[in-house]
Amino acid sequence: MSGCTNGGRGFGSDNHSGAHPAILQAVAQASAGHAHPYGDDKWTREATEVLRARLGTTSNAECDVAFVFNGTGANCVAYAAVCRGWESVICAESAHVNEDESTAPQHLAGIKLVPVSTSDGKLTPDLVKPHLHSFGFEHHAQPRLISVSNVTELGTVYTPDELIALSRLAHGHNMLLHVDGARIANAAAALSCSLADLSSKAGVDVLSLGGTKNGMVLGEAVVLFGDARVSHLAYVRKRSGQLASKMRFIAAQFSAMYAGDLWLECAQHANRMAALLADHARALGIEFACEPQANEVFALLPAESVPELAERFGFYTWKETPDEAGRILVRWVTSWDTQEEDVEEFAGALGSALGGQQAGDSIS
């Protein structure tokens, strides 16, 4: 995949989209005049309070927030803050921290990742339990954290009840639950629930809160709840190279995104565009690796149809090895700025590539 060449918006990733105008306006407003650096400014204080309220907490005794540059940084800072060098993190084999963050978690946080095979990208208590052993045995990495992605890397979504079950399992073994929430807005939109329902109210201890994939320029937040709070979070962020000098520009984006409903509006739109795309694909007889739930669609396409489509619409091949039917797994992602005409154009090209009916004509 070399990029989108159709002259419009592609389906490679929600990282490919631009920034929402309201976000750019917030950055421009924060740029006026001088301000103290490294978070000692009114924008960072305001954004911290905005997030505490949005996540269902009301004071710094319940929730600590540290703004960072990117998602990998957020996960690494989160791990390093609550884990020690002889401890392990249990995650899905398909998790971003295991597949797409190189060795950053191991290098920056000093932990061992324990990947678990799943059918749909989601951990369950039954899948985790076999890895909860050798506590107190010095020859074995000590399990400390269960880490899940919501939305997962296969486009599936954890419900509040599923998170509660994992948090109870973790807490019963003196462990913590971490959520990689790069797309948590899409998960909340898909479930019609609040961000608090998917974090503090579900027993989540550590959250990597995303914004970049949902219309921000850059920036994520590390959030520690309740007893997971540590006094050294600021030092870990600095040591990890994630302390922004002009932090007001990251913080101002979070206020613009989460003070009102912008986060929800962007996520709902992206999810709707993915559902529309999935409907077109179904009408063409295309099967999915998992039923689409948020803004990612994992589709099985005939191998010969993929190169030209991927070149034109900028999406990724997820698994290059064909299955027994000669199909390969691809990923389509919609964004806050995906338009219906983008979906219709892609659906039409998809129908032509498959030699069938134009998909745009098959959806009422």
Describe this structure in words.
There is one protein chain. The protein has 2 domains: 21-258, Type I PLP-dependent aspartate aminotransferase-like (Major domain) (Aspartate Aminotransferase, domain 2); 262-361, Aspartate Aminotransferase, domain 1 (Alpha-Beta Complex), CATH 3.90.1150. Helix content is 36%, strand content 17%. It is built from 13 helices and 11 strands. The protein has helices spanning 21-30, 42-54, 71-82, 96-99, 104-109, 125-128, 160-172, 184-191, 233-239, 248-258, 262-283, 306-313, 340-353; strands at 63-68, 87-92, 112-116, 142-149, 176-181, 206-209, 220-225, 287-288, 296-302, 316-319, 327-333. Strands 1-7-6-5-4-2-3 form a 7-stranded mixed β-sheet, with helices on both faces. Strands 8-9-11-10 form a 4-stranded antiparallel β-sheet, covered by helices on one side. A hairpin with a 7-residue loop joins strand 8 and strand 9. Helix 2 (42-54) runs parallel beside helix 10 (248-258), helix 8 (184-191) packs across helix 11 and helix 11 runs parallel beside helix 13.
Write a short abstract of this structure.
By secondary structure, the chain is an alpha/beta fold.
